[in-house]
C-alpha cells in the first residue's frame, strides 16, 4: 500500500502504463468480446453514452415518511398519504409520524 505522495504518484504512473499497454488492451478487448468482463463493458457504456437515471419506486397504500440518508445527510424526504407521494420540505415530520414516534418513546 502506498504511504507517501511519491509512492502514490509512482503507483498512478505504473497503473496508467499498465492499463494503456497494447498487451493489456488487446487482452481486455478479447475478454469483453468473450463476455468475461461485464463490469468493464458496463462502465464503458456509461462513459460513452451516460449512466441511466436511477429511480426508487414506492407502491402500495398507507401513510408514512420515506427519508433517504447518505452519510448521515438527509438527501430526500417524501411523505406518503393514502399511497400517494407528497413532497415535504424542512425538518418537521408530519403530525401522524410525530404521533407514532411519541407513542414509541
Description:
This protein has two domains: 5-49, no CATH class; 64-104, no CATH class. 47% of the residues lie in helices and 19% in strands. The protein is of the alpha+beta class. The protein has helices at 5-19, 22-33, 38-49, 95-104, and strands spanning 64-70, 73-81, 84-87. The mean pLDDT is 79. The two termini are 48 Å apart. A hairpin with a 2-residue loop joins strand 1 and strand 2 (73-81). The protein is elongated. It is built from four helices and three strands. Strands 1-2-3 form a three-stranded antiparallel β-sheet, with no helix packed on it.
Over the alpha carbons, how many angstroms does the gyration radius reach?
24 Å
Number of domains: 2
Describe the global form. elongated
Q: Fraction of residues in helices?
A: 40-55%
Mean pLDDT: 79
Order of secondary-structure elements: HHHEEEH
Major sheet: size, sense and barrel closure? 3 strands, antiparallel
Question: Summary?
Answer:
The protein is an alpha+beta fold. The chain contains four helices and three strands. It has two domains: 5-49, no CATH class; 64-104, no CATH class.
Keywords:
3-stranded antiparallel beta sheet, 105 residues, alpha+beta, elongated, 2 domains, 4 helices, 47% helix, 3 strands, single chain
Task: Note the topology.
Layout: H1 5-19, H2 22-33, H3 38-49, E1 64-70, E2 73-81, E3 84-87, H4 95-104
Antiparallel strand pairs: 1-2, 2-3
Amino acid at each position: 500500500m502506498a504511504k507517501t505522495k511519491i509512492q502514490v504518484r509512482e503507483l498512478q504512473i505504473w497503473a496508467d502504463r499498465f492499463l494503456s499497454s497494447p498487451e493489456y488492451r488487446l487482452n481486455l478487448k478479447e475478454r469483453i468480446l468473450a463476455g468475461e468482463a461485464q463490469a468493464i463493458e458496463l462502465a464503458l457504456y456509461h462513459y460513452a453514452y451516460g449512466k441511466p437515471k436511477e429511480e426508487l419506486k414506492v407502491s402500495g397504500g398507507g401513510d408514512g415518511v420515506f427519508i433517504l440518508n447518505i452519510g448521515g445527510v438527509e438527501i430526500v424526504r417524501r411523505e406518503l398519504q393514502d399511497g400517494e407521494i407528497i413532497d415535504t420540505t424542512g425538518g418537521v415530520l408530519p403530525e401522524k409520524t410525530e404521533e407514532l414516534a411519541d407513542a414509541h418513546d
